[in-house]
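Dissemination and training. As part of the outreach component of the grant, students in the summer workshop were shown how a complex can be specified as a set of sequence lines and then modelled as a single object. The example used during the hands-on session is reproduced here so that future cohorts can follow it. Participants entered these lines:
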Amino acid sequence: MKEISPLQKKRLGYKPILPKILENISNLEIEEKEKTASLGDEKELKDLFPNTFGAPIVNFKKSCSEKEKKPLKVGVVFSGGQAPGGHNVISGLFDALKKLNSKSLLFGYLNGPSGVVDCKYLDLTKDLVDGFRNLGGFDLIGSGRTKIETDEQLDKSLNCAKDLKLDGIVIIGGDDSNTNAAILAEYFKKNKVSTKVIGVPKTIDGDLKSKEVEISFGFDTACKVYSELIGNIAKDALSAKKYYHFIKLMGRSASHIALECALKTHPNVVLIAEEVLQKKKTLKIVTNKIADVIEKRSKIGKNYGIVLIPEGLIEFIPEFKVLIAQLNKLLAKGEQTEIELNKLKSGDNKIEYIKNILSKESKTCFEHLPKSIQEQLLLDRDPHGNVKVSQIETEKLLIETVKKELKNRGFKAKFNALNHFFGYEGRSAMPSNFDANYCYSLGYTAALLINEGLTGYMSCISNLHEDPENWSPKGVPITSLMNLEIRHARKKPVIKKTLVEANSKAFKFLKENREKWAIQDLYTYPGSIQYFGDKEITDSIPISLKMNNIA
Amino acid sequence: MKEISPLQKKRLGYKPILPKILENISNLEIEEKEKTASLGDEKELKDLFPNTFGAPIVNFKKSCSEKEKKPLKVGVVFSGGQAPGGHNVISGLFDALKKLNSKSLLFGYLNGPSGVVDCKYLDLTKDLVDGFRNLGGFDLIGSGRTKIETDEQLDKSLNCAKDLKLDGIVIIGGDDSNTNAAILAEYFKKNKVSTKVIGVPKTIDGDLKSKEVEISFGFDTACKVYSELIGNIAKDALSAKKYYHFIKLMGRSASHIALECALKTHPNVVLIAEEVLQKKKTLKIVTNKIADVIEKRSKIGKNYGIVLIPEGLIEFIPEFKVLIAQLNKLLAKGEQTEIELNKLKSGDNKIEYIKNILSKESKTCFEHLPKSIQEQLLLDRDPHGNVKVSQIETEKLLIETVKKELKNRGFKAKFNALNHFFGYEGRSAMPSNFDANYCYSLGYTAALLINEGLTGYMSCISNLHEDPENWSPKGVPITSLMNLEIRHARKKPVIKKTLVEANSKAFKFLKENREKWAIQDLYTYPGSIQYFGDKEITDSIPISLKMNNIA
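and obtained this result:
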């Protein structure tokens, strides 16, 4: 028998709170609300999704009569990176299916979408599901990054669904995975296969968001874990008074995580990548901004502090954007320049070679980088030959550029900096009560959407700033979140990523306070996630969600 | 008004549990137990501490009569790195002093021992103390690393104590700081100054430990924070199934933290530096051991896992020990070789220069290191010219050597590794209930020892594996923990660091289980520190403490 920790044991027994409307699902019916279009490119998307485009948003309401529900067979899959709460989507789905009809069955596709294609699955029994309630990770069935795109993949997925006589497939994933869900839904419908496909909005990054999708699951817990650590480090900085901590935070292109963590901890500097892009801030400008804060603080005797850096920052700095695009092109698999580069043995020669084939602007940018970053740009590339942006040590880069800048300014005080990167620490954490409740409701709602025969929908909950009892489950057509974007030189239907908006209340609040936070030490210390005791502590929701949702 | 988090607010109101014996301190008296000697070098230590050596251990017992207690004036100081619970030593001290006599005063020396020397202090009022109860960090009064060693420093400290008419000074620190406390106590007594000096055992490293000192404070909380993160990462590794995470843990020379975290999370590999030293394991042997586990796991389809590395490891690998000692000598400030090295501009030239003046054995070791580590060994040096061992990225070094070894073995599967270092994340965390209670009792006891007129004592609590009500507060002469060691080529009195013992029950348990943990995925997930709810969760004590203390 595998040993589990006392907290795991206790959390296994936590009963997630359901919205009142879901308390009795035997007498629910759907209510069609407004018909939807798409975020853009309506005509093209209608052509791409002739069978599923333009469906209405649906709510649930009480019906007068109780209908007999037939047993359902559903498959569920995790797609992409871990996010806290995934197992609760499964337990919510499982419980709702069993409540609809105790003969319902739930299968878990193994190791991500490749399991859907290759028909590898696990029969999810009550015993199995009960062992993962309210726990972190995706380890009950694993996850993966395969995309179901080719005709062969679509066909194999379809045949598996047919063989298993599935009433529905639930795809738990981010923007790309939900796009995939829409494509699969359309493909099944076109081919007259009755399996419905429902998406569930997952990503710690918080960029899968819209009017209807208030937040993706996992964001709350991940931000709470990172903020616990940032707060601890701020407390340490304030006690030791000798280090600047440059902390990079996961979150890919969007800076939602950095913003939320800043609202929770009040660091001296937080960079918001979207603002860097919008205001065309060069590396020089970003560096100066940090150096300014360090100088000002030093004048009042403070040679310590906290700087938060979003993972995606580097892609939003104009000259890097250009440099990375050029490198991706020059070093794409099979390009002559890539072949030449790989012939060279020493790192120095590679750097020299590349320098001389870059554009003048990119050459200047490249030349001014520390050698370790130059090497990262050339060596650590993904299977497509693209620069692995997430592995560029932006936090170290900024320490170097700031150090140089301070030296140029004749800064006399001490500047000692330490770097941190928080990402994997939060992706598989035990979900907060918010994520535990939210995910359970998302899973529950997914089951109900399948039961209603809907497909190409995303399971959504709105009203999240209220108590869970008052949350509103709904179904939103995935195509309504889409537009066309150019990917690998081709126009593709995609769910539009939502970045940090300049006019959001949360970002405005940051802007109003950051000058003060820069100089005064107004750090707040959220501490570790609490599961028991005061609701104000255990059931808190993301600050940015609260700010943006309350009028 | 500074904003505080809901958890901070709630924790401010937590009432630490006192041992029953301390519930009413108006009728306590001390009971002298066995006289003490030292851990070694008795004669020399007796000569160095003629006025304080050989005192007895003292307990507290109920007395029949209540004595009127006179008001006390006490100064308190934090020395060295942060450890969770420091503020509770202060609040315990404050509350006990006020309980003894409401006219008692507590002063906080500012920014560490330099405050003691320069007589910089803060009057710690109830309002101030109340704002820091049960919170992390040392920020109420700051900390520092000054050592009070020279005659001038000792004199200035003495004059300040005389000016303030202090009855006592409480020094909250690690082994070196408690040695300092003993020296100060002896100096005061020799000079007929009545100020008593009491030490409090602080350090997350857990190496300040003896028969009487069961554990230093802060160790419990820091290990809980690190284990939360290790558990989260293990969960992520198990879900994504594609990364090995090499996690370095703070803790200087001793591997107590790595051992405790391993007992809490069951990683696939944990290196114990003391064992590496004892068995004379070279880097090659350590590398092979990790590579063996990776190969075995790969054969059963597992290309992911968790490797824990203690911060001090590198100093315990025989050839590194020699290399570092040589480098410290060659590059000591003012050495001809140091001057020559600094004349060289490029990193490559420096590396070349050093290589050729090292002994043959050290040259081989140095040559086989990745360049980044070579540079760290030469560039990042402390003010004395010593290699900053804590900043050597051992976790990256091992990833490199393991990668090479696997390649040599013709390993065909994937080996993707990520590195982490956890240290600052835990040093200033909000103390666990254990550390909150323990520190409060330590502070309380320190006040009582001063009230009894004892000096050169360490405030100690034993029986820590029982409920706090049954804990036994006591005073232990600091000299009884000492021996002589060679520091900077001179014999000095020091408190002996306690390393992980090969025969301790905790280490034996690890040895019995690690083969199993290596292959099976038996990770446990402690989750975040809980402060409310089940006592089994909120009031747990370190596993190693429990194992080693219970017969």
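The first strand of chain B starts at residue 28 and ends at 35. Students were then asked to discuss how this feature might be tested experimentally.
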